Amino acid sequence: MRAGPLRVPFNGRPTTPVMYWDSDIAKWIEMASYTLAAHADPALDAQIDEVIARITKAQQPDGYFNTYFLRREPAKRWTNLRDWHELYCAGHLIEAAVAHAQATGKTTLLDVIRRYIDCIARNFGSEANQRRGYCGHPEIELALVRLYRFTNERRYLDLAKFFVDQRGTQPRYFDQEAIARGADPAALFFGTYEYNQSHMPVREQRTVVGHAVRAMYLYSAMADLAGEFDDAGLMAACKTLWGDLTTKRLYVTGGLGPSVRNEGFTTDYDLPNETGYAETCAAIGLIFWAHRLLLVERDARYADMMELALYNGALSGLALDGEHFFYENPLASRGGHRRWTWHRCPCCPPNIGRLIASLGQYVYSTAEDEAAVHLYIEGSARMSIGGVGVSVQQKTQYPWDGAIEIRVDPEQPLEFALRLRIPGWCRSARLQINGNELDVSALMNRGYAHVRRRWQKADVVELNLSMPVERIYAHPEVAADLGRVALKRGPIVYCLEAVDNDAPLRHIALPRSNPVDARFERELLGGVGVLTAQALAAQPSEDGALYSTDPPDMRPTTLQAIPYSFWSNRDSEEMSVWIREI
Amino acid sequence: MRAGPLRVPFNGRPTTPVMYWDSDIAKWIEMASYTLAAHADPALDAQIDEVIARITKAQQPDGYFNTYFLRREPAKRWTNLRDWHELYCAGHLIEAAVAHAQATGKTTLLDVIRRYIDCIARNFGSEANQRRGYCGHPEIELALVRLYRFTNERRYLDLAKFFVDQRGTQPRYFDQEAIARGADPAALFFGTYEYNQSHMPVREQRTVVGHAVRAMYLYSAMADLAGEFDDAGLMAACKTLWGDLTTKRLYVTGGLGPSVRNEGFTTDYDLPNETGYAETCAAIGLIFWAHRLLLVERDARYADMMELALYNGALSGLALDGEHFFYENPLASRGGHRRWTWHRCPCCPPNIGRLIASLGQYVYSTAEDEAAVHLYIEGSARMSIGGVGVSVQQKTQYPWDGAIEIRVDPEQPLEFALRLRIPGWCRSARLQINGNELDVSALMNRGYAHVRRRWQKADVVELNLSMPVERIYAHPEVAADLGRVALKRGPIVYCLEAVDNDAPLRHIALPRSNPVDARFERELLGGVGVLTAQALAAQPSEDGALYSTDPPDMRPTTLQAIPYSFWSNRDSEEMSVWIREI
To answer: What ipTM was predicted for this assembly?
Structure first.
């Protein structure tokens, strides 16, 4: 998605600034910068400059910058880190500044933000005259790691580590700041610090709890820091949390956080479909976390999850027109769940926007003498391996087809390992280099086929991932899904949508032995994979009785499924991912 | 249940009187009077007298009596009929007064209430100086019919008819009274007059809507008046509403009103199990309505419904100890749904109390030259048919067994028709008189076997109703029940309760072809029918995976079901009426 002009919410009507709007401006700058990096656009460039000029002008002599607090509550700066998103906004500004500098070479925003971070670093830390606080909404931690990686200035990394290590320690900062401002420290959202993951030190956390986006952003920073500091304790906590999420609290789409109440987690296996919250930003956060764990652990299961959340739980947040958004991504609807153009809390549009605009960074990674291909997406990239430029070009219809051609073009012949992800869902993969078949199983390590060789200009890798339709079953504790099946092909989770099916979706049952066929429909929704099967539809009895000693008659029907993330682009009637199986 | 001493709510703590408490006092008097009629109890008699003396003392010179308005809001009498339950309380006082007079022969309360009704009759009516109002919570209408039947004074019947006919007419009284008291007439519960069934004239109503108890009490009065006035239009409306309820909006237990929000109806086929509201008083109200339709139409289908709601949706509201109550009767629970001893809105305890204490009136009815047996319950009754005393004695283990022996003892030989209900669920019935087999099918009329003969002392009727276990399926539009089965034997709906089953109930699936066995368990819950079957329980995979391409393994398990109305008498863990069927 290319960034459009900055929207003014509720245009022409009085607006009430909210304390997290700086973050949305920042995400817009970040998204716009990624867009600039891919496509020159002087008008957009100028628009970004204008926004940055305003930020620069508003910055205080001590470096502080936060629109809400400067304009609305100047006396309340840093008095409620728990609820007021102040450092969270700073975090997004960091990400924007780095993306802007990377895209344009300009340090206008970066200079402003570094002064702001200096201000924060003076005020926060473990010295006697500093606040031992951290933000109720994690974000600044991962952003500071990013700033460190871009600037190579260690103090940013240390500040990130301070915030993460401090979280959940006793005495609890959020209690102290509440008392300091004359508030009852017990009067907090939902009565629990689990809401913002400050209920205990992060290294002791075993269960994914609270607000899902906050959790994902915190865990992302934990993964970053575990890698940077080679911190086994932090990585162990990360992996325990990962295990908890992926074995008990995750939708099949990679969506997460089932409850609207806390925008987050509830209890094990509580994954209702129709009322599922599964905020778009939470699935995006899972992509961030998975990506970071992938870079540290080099294990394809993280890439599998990144891909799952990307193609399903996150992408569903964005309409095909690029201008309508889901905040909530339930797995079933009785109708009426529509994407909107603007939202009171407009976090999702710029978040999905910056994800899509920066997708390239998730596809590959490089190390000293290797290049890894994590995602299969048609496109090209230039990378540097051991100082040698290597261009890589993918040709594929993936995810609609498992055939991938990768052309590797080093500037000069170069030995390195090309790591090719063999997705966890793939039961059979074939690999050829320049037409010569390799034994994939012999090359496998943590989910990647390692092809170490001396690469030459125009080497061609052909990878064939078998991609049959699979039936997915949930753990029987997931009450909503028991007796139901989800259809998946490759990384794509499918759903039934009313417009494609004759029978009301709730009446459809798919016999276990019926084959499910896949085809590509060029004309549908811009071209998507489609699944079809012979199924049965329950019929009301002829007398319309509410209760009967006879089970409903089942008439034959043809079931058609489309990718979940493409639903609600034609109408917003009934939809269901989980199909009754008989 | 015998009436215990009148409880003082929140004993020893200050209480806030609420405007409907008179109704609960009245229901207590009514229940206590029924109890007195069955068992002499001088202490209870004296306690009732004491309450009546207080009511008498508080009555105003003009006849008005309402504790709340007299003590708290004397200036607001009859200013908000829509919300304030004023005439509703009067209705319950009428029922109490009639029951008390019938039980004791004393007219102390009746005299007071008749003066109050005189006061109401002066104030309400279609004369120019009268209010054209009616109560937001129906009750006085059916109570006035009852008062008419006891006193034979036609003016009570006419006032009932006025209230029913006036309801929902234009200009709408509730709008007018709102304007008169300076309120916005549009500020009403849920923004709709459907809530209290005043959205249109009752004869035009086609759909059961709004607060379920209000609906049942209104429809009961409509049935009464349709019978008294031989009013075909009113009866047609009643039957349309009956059809709507029973084919689209009723739980299999006879519970009704699925939503906690309006304590009432929502949309067609919206019958969620776990969140089902199904207020005890609503099922009781359905019994009232069904009973009245039965007396007018003489059709056993109304008795079938009366019996279903009695044994299931209503009785579940009362614990075996007679001292704990459900307000809400969901059809499934994950645990934690417990009966309570007292409730902020204590309508259900005295309502189920007066129902149980007056059960006898639902068992038989008599007419000029007939006696009808509507319910089969061990016990004896004395009735008068054509001026001749007839004693009837039932011996039966019903509802646990379909064998019923009825001894008919007329004071003198007497020809009359004995109508014996053959329940709708019964596929095969055998009937013998003094050992001689009759052809039941030849005797059938509207669900009753009519046995017209000259009855003699000690005639013995033996009725055998076959009572196999039946599997019940819901209409496929009931999303919560699709793929599920309920077990029923005779009038009793069964449920699984955690304490009786090894596997978590949510994991259990009953194969369609497995037989379900019934037995009587003398030691369980005071003696109840129990159903058992070989079933299967879904097993988590060994690796605990959240999603898998393999369906869950199913291990054999024995399922045991108990009557739904007996649940939550041992613990309050998982419960489910609807069982997954495979």
So the answer is: 0.94
